[in-house]
Write a structure and sequence with these properties.
This protein is of the alpha+beta class. Helix content is about 20%, strand content about 15%. The two termini are about 20 Å apart.
């Protein structure tokens, strides 16, 4: 991304749930952080994650675990464990500053919230303001912060030349009950390749360009954001590599009704859904074939007395574990008619569809270049630690770094 010539900003991230996703040779070198991978400005960020072990409320933990809870500003570790009170406000402040500094030229801002993720949190002004409890309080703070970004674009009068895309990275974490969200009629949730884990809301906002009140039935992916941003900025990505995403510009500029007036034309796109390096399912148009599937939770109350989770767990998290079921022939669903993936289709009746999906799968796998697993090799010597050996600190970020 460094070769694309417009300012790139990075605020917060779930980059990789392993310390080798931060440092390479030394515990403080930060060689895998966004600053070293094309982003011109990196503000407040969580390069590991907002982990269950970072709970300050004492609902789940007596105290945060500093070895899993650290906050960076650019490549500098500034809080360990981090505090939640001003976390979203810090992300927002950095984002708004970046917008002001780049309002006169094309820019790309990646703003990844720590909401809605365990552990649940919100700033003091939002606590106990929602009937939905801790989850609702966090959602209200998220809603406020998004609104502040949009207000900034409008106040600078650049909303008519700025595309905002709001989306989630995965479905709700059903196993943690009232703190995990809801996937509605969709089956499964976070960490699964059922549609409850993959299919998420997405909103595009671009006043005067993207017509309001539309609902698109096109099959798209978060991988498309990069190609979309590059096209809108007039940039040409390097041609020495293959890009999985496609530009969304043609779809965004279409005029569609919020209420379908006829049967929509099926999207012909094919998406491949993985768990680690195992190809679990293939989505082609309105059909989805499961070659492997995850076991679903059966008793939510077991770990959630009164709806409050006592432990963070996943029914199926191991891509090669005993909770994985192999399907040969694949389990086939018509997602357009059966979004809950409840009624498998007859293999004999839909043999032509399965044949097409198998051909797409074979072509896809024939061109794969296996990459090195990023999180299988871990080392305690790469553990981020400020003020060693205590690993406790609360420094004020230096905005000039």
């Amino acid at each position: 991304m460094a070769s694309i010539s417009f300012p790139l900003s990075f605020v917060d991230v779930d980059q990789c749930h392993c310390f080798t996703g931060i440092n390479e040779f030394l515990p403080g070198d930060g060689r895998h952080l966004p600053h070293h991978h094309g982003f011109d400005f990196v503000g407040t960020n969580l390069p590991f994650t907002n982990h269950w072990a970072c709970d300050e409320s004492k609902v789940h933990m007596a105290h945060p675990n500093p070895m899993k809870c650290f906050l960076y500003w650019n490549t500098t570790l500034v809080q360990q464990p981090f505090r939640h009170d001003n976390l979203t406000a810090s992300f927002l402040q950095d984002s708004i500053a970046f917008i002001h500094n780049n309002k006169d030229r094309p820019f790309f801002l990646y703003f990844s919230f720590a909401h809605m993720h365990t552990d649940m949190f919100s700033a003091p002004r939002f606590r106990e303001t929602s009937r939905r409890g801790r989850y609702g309080d966090g959602l209200r703070e998220l809603d406020w912060a998004v609104g502040e970004v949009l207000k900034t674009l409008v106040s600078l009068q650049i909303q008519h030349r700025t595309l905002m895309i709001f989306l989630s990275d995965h479905g709700g974490h059903l196993e943690i009950c009232t703190e995990g969200g809801s996937n509605g009629i969709l089956k499964g949730g976070k960490a699964s390749t059922w549609d409850g884990g993959l299919r998420v809301p997405a909103i595009a906002w671009w006043p005067g360009v993207v017509a309001p009140g539309q609902v698109s039935q096109h099959l798209v992916s978060s991988m498309d954001v990069f190609q979309t941003a590059a096209e809108l900025a007039g940039a040409t990505p390097p041609k020495d590599r293959i890009y999985d995403g496609k530009s969304l510009v043609p779809i965004l500029l279409q005029k569609t009704s919020a209420v379908p007036t006829g049967k929509p034309t099926p999207s012909l796109r094919t998406l491949f859904h993985y768990c680690s390096d195992r190809l679990m399912a293939v989505r082609q148009g309105e059909y989805k074939a499961h070659f492997y599937s995850m076991e679903l939770p059966t008793n939510y109350s077991e770990h959630c007395p009164g709806g409050v989770p006592k432990v963070e767990y996943f029914t199926s998290f191991d891509c090669y574990g005993p909770h994985i079921t192999r399907h040969d022939p694949p389990l086939l669903f018509n997602i357009a008619r059966d979004p809950g993936e409840l009624y498998p289709l007859s293999v004999e009746e839909y043999d032509d569809i399965i044949t097409e999906i198998l051909a797409a799968k074979a072509q896809h796998q024939a061109h794969l270049m296996p990459g090195k697993a990023q999180c299988k090799e871990t080392s305690t010597t790469l553990q981020p630690c400020c003020n060693p050996p205590f690993c406790y600190c609360n420094y004020k970020p230096d905005g000039n770094r």
